[in-house]
Amino acid sequence: MELYLSSRSMWEEDVEGAVILCFEGEVPPEEAIGDAFREGRFSGKKGEVYSFDLFRDGRKRRVILSGLGKRAELDIRRSMEATGLAISEGCRLRVGSLHVSFPPVDDPLTETMVRGIAEGALLSLYRFSGLKTEEEEERRVERVAIGLPERADLQGALEEGMVLGQETNYVRDLVNSPGNRVTPSYLAEEARRIARDQGLSCRVLGRDEIEGLGMGAFLSVARGSEEPPFFIILEYRGSGGAPVVLVGKAITFDSGGISLKPGKDMDRMKYDMSGGGAVLGTMKAVSRMGLKVNLVGLIPATENLPSGRASRPGDVVRSMSGKTVEIISTDAEGRMTLCDALHYGKGYNPRAMVDIATLTGACLIALGREAIGLMGNDEGLIGLVKEAGRISGERVWELPLWEEYEDLVKSDVADIKNVGDRTAGTIVGGIFLKRFVGDIPWVHLDIAGTAWAEKERPCQPKGATGVGVRLLYHLLRTMEEG
Ligand code: BES
Ligand code: MN
Ligand code: ZN
């Protein structure tokens, strides 16, 4: 899709339709549009969309009014959702090109609007395709002009929105793709390709090297699968200081292993590499935008399958840190892979580590699909992630990691066990990981509830959401050096 800033009006621009984003109760000056308000056909409430045809000098425009809600409540989510709903309406009306405009707003919000329109357009137009032999032909919006008075300084906001929209869609493709396509070796190949395209450095460690490093916890998950595991390392250098380390869970299919999951909806567990996907997408976005940070992406990639060689409940393994771990459930596999990756990450002496993972079904129970579960050991870093949540619109909600919870992972036979009782499931995941990060500032993001959309939403078709790219990108932007 083509997306650009234009100082031309909806009548000057060569387009079939015009999206006019409106605040609730603020009647636009144009007569015909104002009439829609005055006659009660449209009020500008959030979620509201109203379309009609307008003619002038023998030319026609399909006009789509879309509500931003109250001016005082404007944020990135409102701007994205109003755009996304309008673009979907444009597709329904078979309009191929659109002019998008919005009422004047104060300055930081103009950038928010531009970014939101770009992201909203790209995210709402996303479709997963390529696996059906006959795709339905659909007329789609192919060109969007954002109508604005001449302002060279908004080009950056547009570019940021486009990159984030594209990379979020890139992650959606990875996550929607089935487990027989997106295997650990597929992810490793993607990492190599990204490194080539963006000038990053990339190393991919195979089973022998993983074993050589002593990553017994990670390997205990990979044992049951015929697909070889890989430990993927991507490094981006945008500055001189200590790096930020990102760790992404990448179970390319989670059957539960010997602690086999129930059959219902097990196919969903192809999404269990969403954290690793988010790390790949973030590395791409950060390098494309040239952020002034040093960044390391670590992705321990494997399947979790049962077999005659698979780990058993009750097995004890030795993690890279030296700590022994009792496997109570082979279905609590994500933390087994992440604990070795986090320990490996400490070797960089990082400023901060952030892991992102579809770690617990309990997170979906606690927060539903509306928020990422956030836990950590450092108030400063937690604050930055919350701020990035507000800037990006990817909402986070903090859960505590009080020391009293530590009792839940005490093992009778090893240093730690990989599950607690049935209580505080999401927190127990965080408590487990915390033991492997020491005193490095660290945040854990549980995206089990937010990585998949059960139903269509504005800017979100059913399926993978690509969550994490925008949050992590904006976190890193606030951590830029110099
Ligand atoms: N990938 C799953 C988390 C998950 C489960 C997400 C269900 C969405 C729906 C993870 O590997 C897992 O199986 N976690 C277990 C942990 C438990 C055994 C402590 C879970 O949540 O049931
Ligand atoms: Mn599992
Ligand atoms: Zn899992």
Q: How is the secondary structure organized here?
A:
Blueprint: E1 2-6, E2 17-23, H1 31-38, E3 49-56, E4 59-69, H2 76-92, E5 97-101, H3 107-124, E6 143-147, H4 155-176, H5 184-198, E7 201-205, H6 207-212, H7 216-222, E8 230-237, E9 244-248, E10 250-254, H8 274-289, E11 294-304, E12 316-318, E13 324-326, H9 334-346, E14 352-357, H10 361-367, E15 372-376, H11 379-392, E16 396-398, E17 416-417, H12 425-434, E18 442-446, E19 452-453, E20 463-464, H13 469-478
Parallel strand pairs: 1-6, 2-4, 2-5, 5-6, 9-11, 9-14, 10-11, 13-17, 14-18, 15-16
Antiparallel strand pairs: 3-4, 7-8, 8-11, 12-13, 15-18, 19-20
Helix pairs in contact: 2-3, 3-4, 4-8, 5-8, 7-9, 8-13, 11-13
The structure holds ligand BES, manganese (II) ion and zinc ion.
CATH first level of the largest domain: Alpha Beta
Q: If you compute it from the alpha carbons, what radius of gyration comes out, rounded to the nearest whole angstrom?
A: 24 Å
Distance between the termini: 34 Å
Number of domains in the coordinates?
2
Please identify the oligomeric state. Answer: single chain
If helices are DSSP runs of H or I spanning 4 or more residues, what is the number of helices?
A: 13
Number of strands: 20
Q: Give me the CATH fold name of the largest domain.
A: Aminopeptidase
CATH superfamily of the largest domain: Zn peptidases
> What percentage of the residues does DSSP assign to strands (E)?
15-25%
Sheet with most strands: 9 strands, mixed
Q: For the residues shown, what is the average pLDDT?
A: 97
Shape: elongated
Portion of residues within helices: 25-40%
- Ligands bound here? ligand BES, manganese (II) ion, zinc ion
> Which CATH architecture of the largest domain is right?
3-Layer(aba) Sandwich
Low-confidence stretches: none
Secondary structure category: alpha/beta
